[in-house]
């Protein structure tokens, strides 16, 4: 029954997402480049069938932290990246089919990696009290280093002020070096969420307040709205996991359908479209739309070959900067726009379809390693710990997520996480 409900909810999710795109996003945000071209019914049905296949294979019960990653990537990355290019006509039908088939194969590689037998990896055993004291010390030292560069934030920016605050943040970083950015992102994506997870799973509310206050301070400094997403995502995951992950797939999809559906009901009568704009358009639709533009452009132009950033000395890059800026210039000529898409789109921009397969194998290996390091640990902690690094895969390259956005740090922290701590209320592994 859970499998049938899962497939039905995926269909409901696709239907509400499509309706949100055609009735709210295109009419109200068309000036940003969103468009809709009705595909042939047979073409849409064929792509929908490809998008539905993983729903028959994904685990409906959460037993490993990688299952959370797979569900997130399936709903937030794979489905939009398959469907949006045919709605926007960014790709013709043969190119859309090729992309859909390759993405399906990439996802099947991730599924296969997540089913490999886990191994017990020796790790440093740390007393529970010492582990949490170390996390608290990391927060304190990191905030002191951040304060030395940015000072003490005097106000929390409103949503209308975040872009100005973000510009100030970038100017300060350019003047003082980018090293402190790592501390900000690691705190926001890994350490603060872990402290908040302790409050949600162990009822240690003081730890949660420390993590939340630190998160608000980071938002006040950087203006990054994703920093405020962490508490919302963690609370939602804690609720979904409250039945020890037994109905995870159904619960996760139900929350998604409700969020998109609530935006359909409320946003038409609200002036700023908060749910559709911040959640559906920014998080789900835009990376899917951009995936089509990435594939269309880098299919007929030279690929980037990682010839930028830290790898700029290893290959020639005819563009001189990242694929996100290349596509941003394509979509908004004369402007400096980071058109960040998901890690599969970035892999295609650098190495084509072969790159998508290679980076899928790499991510699958990382997920298997994470699962193995989490063996014997409480599942709730290992899932909430990797929640934000997983989110970063929706709009960043895999190597960037690993080094900068906390995926690598999450591997280190889960290795140190005490085994089976006597906390209440979270699912067992």
Question: If you had to describe this structure to a student in words, what would you say it looks like?
Answer:
This protein has helices at 2-29, 41-52, 65-88, 93-114, 128-150, 162-176, 179-202, 205-222, 226-240, 248-266, 274-300, 323-331, 343-373, 379-385, 387-392, 398-403, 407-416. Helix 1 crosses helix 11, helix 5 (128-150) crosses helix 7 and helix 8 packs antiparallel against helix 9 (226-240). The chain is mainly alpha-helical and 429 residues long. The relative contact order is 0.15.
Which short descriptors sum up this protein?
429 residues, mainly alpha, disordered C terminus
- Derived from helix and strand composition plus strand pairing, the structural class reads mainly alpha
Distance between the termini: 23 Å
Low-pLDDT residue intervals, each spanning 5 or more residues: 421-429
Strand content: under 5%
- Shape annotation: globular
Radius of gyration, taken over Cα atoms and rounded to an integer in Å: 21 Å
Number of strands: 0
Number of helices: 17
Secondary-structure element order, N to C:
HHHHHHHHHHHHHHHHH
Mean pLDDT: 90
Note the main sheet.
Answer: none
Helix content: 55-70%
